[in-house]
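User: Please write out a complete single-protein record containing the residue sequence and its fold in token form, without commentary.

AI:
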Amino acid sequence: MGQRYWVIGGEYRDCAFREIEPGTERMSGPFGDELKARMEWQRLTFRDKCAATERYTIAIEPSLGRA
């Protein structure tokens, strides 16, 4: 099994991006390849307007080795 990609983020209280507003958290995935994750990141980031306090990132879940 390869790596899995997740798009995570939401709306933050301010532009310092230290604390996320409760209830605005979003997580999309898993995606089997980076391109699909990037497309979802783009969709979330630019969907309605560019909100100054909204931020998303792509997180990579490492593949687990065989036991």
Remarks:
- Residues 40 and 46 are 10 Å apart (CA to CA).
- DSSP finds one helix and three strands in the chain.
